[in-house]
Specification:
This protein is α/β, with parallel strands linked by helices. The chain contains ten helices and eight strands. The chain is globular, with a radius of gyration of 17 Å. It comes from Flavobacterium artemisiae.
Length: 219
């Protein structure tokens, strides 16, 4: 029952406009089912193979979010069912998602990952690359994807001011592209904030938080 009570406590702390993604990577199906029984329907995984196995085994009203780095050669495995792909960081990857979505007669929703941290290891586009991508003719040709917004990960640090600065930066980038109009853009979502910093992320404008350890315990 620990997972259930963790989930209920977190949901109580979230404003209505914020979507909770329960990050269930590496956790057994039994843990996910406990969260499911408590009402959770959105789960985030970072490995396509693991997510696909869970999708096959679990109830079909679950929304599966791919929150890890995506390799183009793996897209085809999740294309039949994935609800939202968080970490899209290149036109090449978008084109592959579009191709696999077309094969499955779907439109797949995506978030573009923006590089906001001061660490070298994080993936993502910078502001110039984002603008180049969204205004390119190649992007406008993609009819089987829909960009719902942006995703970013703050630097792994105790420095709250730095995290706040990075989250605020992502919100300002989101605001700067909101006026762009193409058929495959529907900008509603800013995915930022995890177990340690989601309250700060919400203060800075997040509409979607990715929480794992505070629900399921440590890995």
């Amino acid at each position: 029952m620990r997972i259930k009570s963790n989930l209920q406590n977190i949901k109580k702390s979230l404003p209505e406009h914020v979507t909770l993604v329960a990050v269930s990577k590496t956790k057994p199906v039994s843990d996910l089912m406990e969260a499911y029984e408590a009402g959770q329907r959105i789960f985030g995984e970072n490995k396509i193979q693991e997510m696909t196995e869970k999708w096959e085994e679990m109830p079909k009203d679950i929304q599966w979010h791919m929150i890890g780095h995506v390799q183009t050669n793996k897209v085809k495995f999740m294309a039949p069912y994935v609800t939202l792909i968080h970490g899209v960081d290149s036109l090449k990857l978008l084109q592959e998602i579009n191709k696999q979505a077309l094969k499955n007669n779907r439109i797949i929703d995506c978030l573009l990952q923006i590089y906001i941290a001061e660490e070298e290891s994080k993936f993502g586009l910078d502001e110039n690359e984002l603008n180049q991508l969204l205004t390119s003719s190649e992007f406008k040709e993609l009819k089987n994807i829909r960009i719902l917004g942006l995703m970013g990960m703050a630097t792994f640090t105790e420095n709250q001011n730095q995290i706040k600065k990075e989250f605020t930066h992502l919100k300002s980038i989101f605001d700067s592209i909101k006026s762009l109009k193409t058929e495959n853009l529907e900008l509603t979502t800013i995915s930022m904030g995890m177990s340690g910093d989601y309250q700060l992320a919400i203060e800075c404008g997040s509409t979607m938080v990715r929480i794992g350890s505070s629900i399921f315990g440590g890995r």
